[in-house]
Amino acid sequence: MTDANVVAPTTPTVALVHGAFADSSGWVGVIDLLRAAGIDAVAVSNPLRGIAEDSAYVASALAQLPGPVLAVGHSYGGAIITNAAARAGNVVGLVYVSAFAPDEGEKLIEVEAGSTDSVLDTALVERQYPTGQGGETVAEFSIDPARFHQVFAADLTEEQAADMAATQRPVSSLGFVEPNGPPAWKTLPSWAVVSTGDTAAGADVVRRMAQRAGAVITETEGSHVLFIARPQVVADVIVQALSALSQGAAAPAAAGV
């Protein structure tokens, strides 16, 4: 792992945002490695209620962290930091981990339709839940536990995947169908980890989005939950980003902008 001494004294706090079907506990391995390197890291809960609501919540959480922040998003969490970072005002860089980096107006359901690597839609289970507003309900999606290991966490043990399947948090359908806002990657430097065996978000979609964002890309073998199976890979990219920021990394010239 890169020597933490190369990072300036004003090292940003690393804020880790989880995605759908998960929670903040998935970041423990990464947090332990960063702490060992003398880097402050905190996991920010993602409500999983939809692009608009989740982005507003995460933007507020990021803004309340003292000093500069490096925002790290996994999967759907990547879409949320894309929307939230500019609003927060203190985010200086972005790290995408097997994550979506949508452009303005894009909907994740349409983005995923263009993937030949993702098989997530074949494993989703839909249920209706009340919103608490009159008789309104909202659709929520979870992953069929019988498919969780194969689709989401192939490089974990069957027991680990079964535990994740049993504790997964469903995501509102609004996360897939609400349009995304102006993306922070157009003004902030970004880095991305692409897992070549990602059959959830789809390695092809993740790679294309990272390339369009002008991210510094690290591509490695792994499933959608590489950050759990191989936390060192993710921690190293985060340290790489912090080191670049300490040396005054400029915002990328994003393709397609």
Which structural traits does this protein have?
six-stranded parallel sheet; Rossmann fold; three-stranded antiparallel sheet; 9 strands; 257 residues; 10 helices; alpha/beta; 19% strand
What does this structure look like?
- This protein has helices spanning 28-36, 51-63, 76-88, 108-113, 145-152, 158-167, 174-177, 203-212, 226-229, 231-246; strands at 13-17, 41-44, 69-74, 91-97, 124-130, 137-143, 171-172, 190-195, 216-220.
- It has 257 residues and is α/β, with parallel strands linked by helices.
- It has one domain (4-246): Alpha/Beta hydrolase fold, catalytic domain (Rossmann fold, 3-Layer(aba) Sandwich).
- The protein contains 10 helices and 9 strands.
- It has a 6-stranded parallel β-sheet with strand order 2-1-3-4-8-9, sandwiched between helices. Strands 5-6-7 form a 3-stranded antiparallel β-sheet.
- The relative contact order is 0.19.
